[in-house]
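Structure in, sequence out. Go:
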């Protein structure tokens, strides 16, 4: 028996070329070594009967806020990685707005050390840009890229003027990922809506013009310096329409399931739980974001998992934090849309895995192919059940999709050939690995 081996039998396998195979996958020493209609190997330490299940590459979530260190009452790397495993997320890229901020090599090293001890899935971390840490963002390693908050203020991480942004784009060659909102316009709009306690005005204060202004500025700087740019959580129709005409080949963009599936109607339905940055938009924005995703203007999907406690969310507008959890619902939300005919399963897998690995230069991830890491998820597309708080692994304990009847829930999640989630049970003894970026 090979103790570091796993045989998955009788799955519907999505292959790297986008075709399907009904068959088996053999994993040895963390890598996929054989894919065939039938594999005769009998020395595998574990076998999974995947009859009736669909095998996809594990999800890579390229934008999460897991709150450790400093904000562990909302989430921590243990609970977040459990939520990832339950949601079929085998790798994540985490943002720098923790306490302390991830703006130095020492802070990055601390996060990597914490994740090595706590995370049951694979992990990578952004280095955050400030107006004063240019040497750090050029040299800190390993990192998936530089995070720039152009708007919705984040203290020392706010870099909201062209003068402060220019040297970040001008020096180095790392990917720059931007939260594109125009802070000056947001500040002006806050004054106009001062005194309002209706959370729905959040979408008017941080309006589509604020988003477009910042996206245009980031594109201008990217083109000026031929700098690799990624636009985080695209939210507006006018940004999609602008990018469709002006996006260079080296620029990518993402969208969240929330911005695809939710809109300003959510304020009436779930109140302050609907507040996020950038905010939810209109039905028209939903439609155009979907069109942009389907035509390739938008390259992939991220959750922007940003948990806050129910107590924090109950404080009343404008004293509530912005953000929603999402890692354990994103895959079923999107697969439910695929089953309904809005897109295909192959497209969902590309948007949530393959395209992310390509954009962030993560080797051997994002596909089911011989030699690739065995980061895999087996999902059930035959059965539906609602999102319920009692089932959630995230520490914050709620979801904006609560009550939604979804399919495509993970039955098994496999990280580096190890089963970390099986039919509702978490394997806390398994640990993920630091991602590499080439």
């Amino acid at each position: 028996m090979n103790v570091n081996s796993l045989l998955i039998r009788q799955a519907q396998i999505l292959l790297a070329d986008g075709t399907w195979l009904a068959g088996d996958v053999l994993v040895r020493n963390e890598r996929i070594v054989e894919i065939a209609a039938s594999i005769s190997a009998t020395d595998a330490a574990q076998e999974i009967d995947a009859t009736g299940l669909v095998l996809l590459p594990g999800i890579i979530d390229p934008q999460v806020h897991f709150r450790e260190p400093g904000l562990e009452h909302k989430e921590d790397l243990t609970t977040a990685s459990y939520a990832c495993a339950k949601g079929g997320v085998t790798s994540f890229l985490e943002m720098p707005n923790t306490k302390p901020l991830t703006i130095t090599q020492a802070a990055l090293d601390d996060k990597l050390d914490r994740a090595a001890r706590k995370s049951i899935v694979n992990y990578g971390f952004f280095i955050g840009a400030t107006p004063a840490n240019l040497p750090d963002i050029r040299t800190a390693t390993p990192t998936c890229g530089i995070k720039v908050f152009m708007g919705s203020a984040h203290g020392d991480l706010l870099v909201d003027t062209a003068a402060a942004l220019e040297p970040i784009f001008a020096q180095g060659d790392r990917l720059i990922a931007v939260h594109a909102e125009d802070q000056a316009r947001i500040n002006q709009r806050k004054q106009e809506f001062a005194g309002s306690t209706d959370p729905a005005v959040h979408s008017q204060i941080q309006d589509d013009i604020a988003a477009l202004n910042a996206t245009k500025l980031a594109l201008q700087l990217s083109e000026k310096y031929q700098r690799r740019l990624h636009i985080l959580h695209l939210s507006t129709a006018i940004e999609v329409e602008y990018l469709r005409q002006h996006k260079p080949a080296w620029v990518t963009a993402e969208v969240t399931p929330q911005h695809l599936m939710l809109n300003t109607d959510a304020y009436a339905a779930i109140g302050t739980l609907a507040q996020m940055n950038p905010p939810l938009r209109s039905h028209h924005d939903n439609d155009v974001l979907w069109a942009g995703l389907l035509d390739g203007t938008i390259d992939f999907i991220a959750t922007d998992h940003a948990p806050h406690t129910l107590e924090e969310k109950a404080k009343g507008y404008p004293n509530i934090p912005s953000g929603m959890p999402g890692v354990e619902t994103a895959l079923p939300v999107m697969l439910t849309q695929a089953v309904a005919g809005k897109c295909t399963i192959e497209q969902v897998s590309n948007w949530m895995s393959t395209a992310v690995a390509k954009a962030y230069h993560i080797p051997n991830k994002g596909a089911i192919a011989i030699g690739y890491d065995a980061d895999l998820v087996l999902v059930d597309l035959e059965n539906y059940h609602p999102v319920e708080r009692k089932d959630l692994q995230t520490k914050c304990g709620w979801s904006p999709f609560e009550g939604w009847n979804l399919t495509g829930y993970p039955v098994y999640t496999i990280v580096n050939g190890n089963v970390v989630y099986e039919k509702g049970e978490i394997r806390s003894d398994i640990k993920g690995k630091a991602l590499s970026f080439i």
